[in-house]
Specification:
This protein is mostly beta strands. The protein has two domains: about 1-75, no CATH class; about 80-204, Immunoglobulin-like (Sandwich), CATH 2.60.40.150. Helices cover about 5% and strands about 45% of the residues. Strands 8-7-10-11 form a four-stranded antiparallel sheet, with no helix packed on it. A three-stranded antiparallel sheet has the order 5-9-6, with no helix packed on it. A two-stranded antiparallel sheet has the order 1-2. A hairpin with a 2-residue loop joins β7 (about 140-145) and β8. The longest helix is centred in the middle third of the chain and has 10 residues, at about 95-100. It is a multi-pass membrane protein. Belongs to the MCTP family. Pfam families: C2. This is MCTP2 protein. InterPro entries: C2_dom, C2_domain_sf.
Length: about 200
């Protein structure tokens, strides 16, 4: 029941500098009957923003009254990576030793915000549901930890896809839950849900 809502939420997105990324934002209204209505959209060209500073943007909503106030900072990512299985970031024994030293007991309070990191190897899926009329699916995998999200490539026409990718996340809250979701790519339409698993970090 507000025409001037304040959310004060922060979201982290990862993109590579060789891509031309547009941030699409939608504002929705929801009532008690779960009815949803689109109140407006706006778009931000990420590549046009100055880097290493916080940009304050007031964006008018397209074809609707009102505007959206955002703070957007474009900065180099630290601790987040995607790599192939054959070049796993922790495959080097020297690097593993450096990591062990970095997070040993005597260094626990050197950087309070540096809790640690999570490395996930996404190998394959088996016996997925067929989402297409051909009896196949075009699966890809999305990993979410807190507000960090990374995803694999799509393996087309396959119910037993192999991705063999390694994902590394910085940990901001030890109570976070890693959510791994498999979707079927469906062209310009929203992807179809094929399955999901949730893994609390404290269970690892």
């Amino acid at each position: 029941k507000s025409a001037n809502p304040q959310w004060r939420e922060q979201f982290d997105f990862h993109y590579f500098s060789d891509r031309k990324d547009i941030l699409d934002i939608e504002v929705w209204r929801k009532d008690y009957k779960k009815h949803e209505e689109l109140l407006g959209t706006c778009h931000v060209d990420i590549t046009a923003l100055p880097t290493k500073q916080t940009n304050c943007l007031e964006l008018p909503l397209e074809k609707h009254p009102g505007s959206l106030l955002l703070l957007i900072a474009v900065a180099p990512c630290t601790g987040v990576s995607i790599s192939d299985l054959c070049v796993c970031p922790l495959g080097d024994p020297n690097e593993r030793q450096q990591i062990s030293q970095r997070y040993c007991m005597k260094n626990s309070f050197r950087d309070i915000k540096d809790i640690g990191f999570l490395q996930v190897k996404v190998l394959k899926a088996v016996d997925l549901m067929a989402a297409d009329f051909s009896g196949k699916s075009d699966p890809f995998c999305v990993l979410e930890l807190g507000n960090d999200m990374l995803q694999t490539h799509t393996v087309y026409k396959n119910l037993n896809p192999e991705w063999n990718k390694v994902f590394t996340f910085p940990i901001k809250d030890i109570h976070d839950v890693l959510e791994v979701t498999v979707f079927d790519e469906d062209g310009d339409k929203p992807p179809d849900f094929l399955g999901k698993v949730a893994i609390p970090l404290l269970s690892v």
